[in-house]
From TrEMBL:
PANTHER family named among the record's database cross-references: PROTEIN RHSA-RELATED, PTHR32305
Source organism superkingdom: Bacteria
Protein name: Putative Insecticidal toxin protein
InterPro entries: Rhs_assc_core, T6SS_VgrG/RHS
Length: 838
């Protein structure tokens, strides 16, 4: 429950645990303080008019949060942070920040803190990152803005290559890269459906290290993975390195088979480490999974050398579940007592208590509780966004308390351990498809290990680290996983060396508790569930504890709040709604449809070229003046409204849009997809997936029934959404539509009438503020954010309500022009007006 202010800003929020959160704002409605149960847990400070030396004016320059203080010391011209300092709290307890800066500084550890610096190019791509220990990462890009390679220079040492020669296919997917240890990783995709078929890694001498082969069902679920780099083993039977998967009609995994170590662990503990690796100790296993109607695991049955099962019981009126332990079936009261009012699990296993902070973030785990003496514990601290910045583990050894402290900084982890005397700096580097970590011991290095060891991790399609190599491409460790994340076997050359591996399943860190940290939640792989509800709500289904919709082989979750198909989430959802994918890539369209789209792309290019040429010439007369008035309002040419600035802006946007249309016609024609719908829901739509990026789906029925001019308008509209093509964000929205039908049999006279009617409808739509209630949620948020950004830039307070935004749209030409230019159909109509009848 929440109380909002007049501008819709949250003032007070209450949750089910009776935590009261109160937020204070300045005159510009920027948050300045956050109180939780009368403790000030955040204070925010912004740069004033005198903070121009480091481009701090109007920027958030100091943020005191639950983990400490972040200081944004310097900004670039684009607004990106150039220098940032993090200082940690002296005490791990939640702070109560005083108002005075002196008082706040007194709560922090002494010293200047950890400073990171970045350098960007003209399009705001990171060229160089310097971490808090002076290690420098260099990033190189292609002309399309894709990563080409990366290098690392450890403080005081020579530069080393981490990855080079990254090559991409036409879809922008990595198909080849060379690591700094000369291992070449390649990926091969199916030419018909674009699905991943192979992942390979080869030493420079040609020796295969990884050779994963994938098979799919017609829907796109992975049904078989064959690791051909591993030997088939004969110990009374043949044990192939093949994993198979079966699904129910909801695409939930119901059966899986693979290989495991013959001695099995059933809980959070890793299986025993093998050194050296002994393939003869591996055996086949099969797991079956049974779910209730809500997607809660009811029973796992494991068949292998050590067969076992796990049963969970779910509450009648929620998805909260507990396992059956030693035959005891938990009742409703026990399940209710095992969770707090917000649904957070209170005990990991018997005697392992979990404590949660006021933001439903795991704060404290006590794996060992002692009646006399201190408990063993692991505590966590998070920044304001919910990202973990610190992990402190304390253990008791007789009368001595040992502390292991991990601090997470950009590109760097600082790990100290009083039990071993270690201070370890782990440099976390960006290196293409795979991961690179460099281990530098400032003190306490184990004798068996070399300092500044570079460790390369080869991943599978889910990002799980399966093979870890050193700088000479020799195996450090190798690991295989059960479908839901437990480790099925683990081996390597040295146990001490292998134990420094912390990132495992799905590319996430595994804590000593056995939990995986995902960024916003913790996952218990032995339960196949999250330990608290999804903080984003029901975005991933109504079961807020369900892991990746019970489809862990084809899906992953980056932060713990929204799973997606590793190939294409939107495509899978659309298939579930009956959409059929007829052809991918313009060259694969049936000839009639291919020719129609090619004509439309060429025609759209002509419209945009004419519009751009007119904008470059005298634009103050004739029909062009009419289209400007109809599009941007009758006051567009008044000197106070900067008409030349609008023309320059419009010219640049049309130039970029023209380039995208050309790419769709040639180099990026693979981004066009032909679909059939059981019910016509769209004529065209821009699909934006994490793997394939921005695609345009065109409705087959629409192409059959519509004149080429109408098709061209839709393609220009969707191309506007795709701009910029190589970036994940979408700037152009749908604040309103200007849609009229145009039959495929339309005459020139009817086309002329269509153009006149469309322009008149556009003029009517842009003459008044759009109806926010008819916008999609993301468009409504974009509309408000764009207006508020323009107001803040002008030093004016942000908008307070719908009525004020409507007034601003009508009275402020700059705001109106920005909204119109960021509306996809306004661009499409502007281009349409430059059609020339034959």
């Amino acid at each position: 429950m929440s109380l909002a202010g007049e501008a819709g800003q949250a003032l007070v929020v209450w949750d089910a645990r009776c935590v009261v959160r109160r937020i204070g704002y300045d005159a510009l409605l920027r948050p300045t303080e956050v109180f939780e149960d009368e403790h000030c847990v955040e204070r925010l400070l912004y740069g004033g008019p005198d903070s121009t030396d480091h481009n701090q004016c109007g920027q958030l320059i100091r943020h005191d949060d639950p983990a400490g203080t972040r200081l944004d010391d310097e900004f670039g011209l684009s607004g990106s942070v150039i220098s940032q300092t993090r200082r940690f709290l002296q005490n791990l307890d939640e702070p109560d920040w005083p108002e005075s800066l002196t008082g706040r500084d007194a709560l922090l550890e002494p010293g200047e803190g950890a400073t990171n610096r970045w350098r960007y190019n003209s399009v705001n791509e990171t060229l160089r990152q310097t971490d808090a220990q002076g290690n420098v990462q260099f990033l190189d890009y292609t002309v399309a803005g894709l990563l080409k390679g990366s290098r690392l220079q450890m403080n005081g040492q020579a530069e080393q290559v981490l990855v080079s020669a990254i090559q991409y296919d036409a879809q922008g997917r990595v198909v080849s890269e060379t690591a700094g240890n000369s291992v070449i990783s390649t990926a091969r995709y199916d030419t018909e459906d674009g699905r991943l078929k192979e992942l390979n890694a080869t030493r420079s001498n040609g020796k295969l290290l990884q050779d994963l082969r994938y098979d799919y069902d017609p829907v796109g679920n992975v049904i078989r993975v064959d690791d051909r780099a591993l030997p088939a083993i004969s110990k009374g039977q043949r044990i192939d390195s093949i994993s198979t998967y079966q699904y129910d009609t909801l695409y939930q995994l119901i059966e899986a088979s693979g290989r495991e170590w013959a001695v099995v662990n059933h809980g959070p503990v890793l299986p025993g480490f093998q050194s050296p690796a002994d393939p003869s100790t591996l055996a086949d296993y099969t797991q079956t999974y049974r779910y209730d109607a809500g997607g809660n695991l009811q029973q796992l049955t494991h068949t292998g050398t050590q067969s076992h099962s796990r049963t969970l019981v779910t509450a009648r009126c929620s998805n909260r579940s507990l396992p059956v332990i030693n035959g005891h079936i938990p009742d409703e009261a026990e399940i209710a007592a095992a969770f707090d009012a917000n649904g957070n699990l209170l005990a990991l296993q018997a005697g392992q208590h979990l404590s949660w902070d006021r933001r439903n973030q795991l704060q404290h785990v006590r794996p060992v509780i002692r009646e006399n003496g201190m408990d063993d514990s692991e505590r966590y601290s998070y920044d304001a966004s919910g990202q973990r910045l610190r992990k402190v583990r304390t253990t008791q050894a007789k009368t001595i308390t040992h502390t292991a402290d991990v601090r997470y900084l950009p590109g760097l982890e600082i790990r100290t351990d009083t039990a071993t005397g270690e201070t370890l700096h782990v440099v976390v580097a960006q290196a293409g498809r795979n991961n690179v970590r460099v281990l530098h011991w400032a003190s306490g290095k184990p004798d068996a290990l070399e300092n500044d060891q570079t460790r390369y991790t080869l991943n599978d399609h889910l990002g799980s680290g399966t093979l870890e190599l050193d700088g000479q491409a020799q195996r450090i460790s190798q690991e295989s996983y059960y479908p839901f994340g437990g480790t099925s076997w683990w081996a390597g050359r040295n146990a001490i060396e292998a134990n420094y591996k912390t990132v495992r399943y799905s590319g996430k860190e595994r804590d000593a508790t056995g939990l995986y940290y995902y960024g916003l939640r913790y996952y218990a792989p032995w339960l196949q569930r999250w330990i608290n509800p999804d903080p984003a709500g029901a975005v991933d289904g109504l079961n807020l504890y369900c892991m990746v919709r019970n489809n862990p082989v084809s899906h992953r979750d980056d932060l713990g709040c929204n799973s997606y198909d590793v190939l294409n989430e939107q495509e899978m959802i659309s298939r579930g709604r009956g959409v059929r994918f007829v052809a991918r890539g313009l060259e694969n369209f049936p000839p009639l449809y291919r020719e129609t789209v090619q004509r439309s792309l060429a025609l759209g290019g002509q419209w945009l070229s004419r519009a751009k040429n007119q904008l470059s010439n005298d634009f103050a007369h004739g029909l062009d003046s009419l289209v400007m008035r109809s599009t941007f309002g009758t006051d567009w040419s008044e000197l106070d409204n900067d008409p030349s600035g609008l023309i320059d802006w419009l010219h640049d946007e049309i130039t970029q849009l023209e380039s995208i249309m050309t790419r769709f016609e040639h180099s990026d024609s693979w981004r066009l997809v032909l679909v059939e719908q059981p019910i016509r829901e769209f004529d065209g739509i821009m699909s934006n997936s994490p793997v394939q990026g921005k695609m345009i789906w065109l409705n087959k029925k629409f192409l059959q029934m519509t004149h080429v001019v109408g098709i061209t308008k839709v393609i220009v509209h969707e191309s506007s959404h795709a701009s910029p093509l190589d970036k994940p964000w979408v700037n152009v929205q749908d604040y309103w539509y200007v849609t009229l039908p145009l039959s495929i049999a339309a005459t020139d006279q009817e086309v002329a009438g269509y153009m006149q009617d469309t322009l008149a409808l556009s003029a009517s739509a842009s003459a008044q503020a759009p109806d926010e209630s008819r916008m999609a949620p993301h468009a409504r948020l974009s509309y408000k954010s764009l207006i508020d950004s323009l107001l803040s830039t002008a030093g004016r307070p942000v908008s307070e309500n719908v009525e004020e935004r409507a007034r601003l749209f009508s009275e402020d030409a700059a705001i109106r022009q920005s909204i119109i230019l960021n509306n996809a159909d306004s661009r499409a109509v502007f281009a349409l007006w430059h059609h020339r009848l034959t």
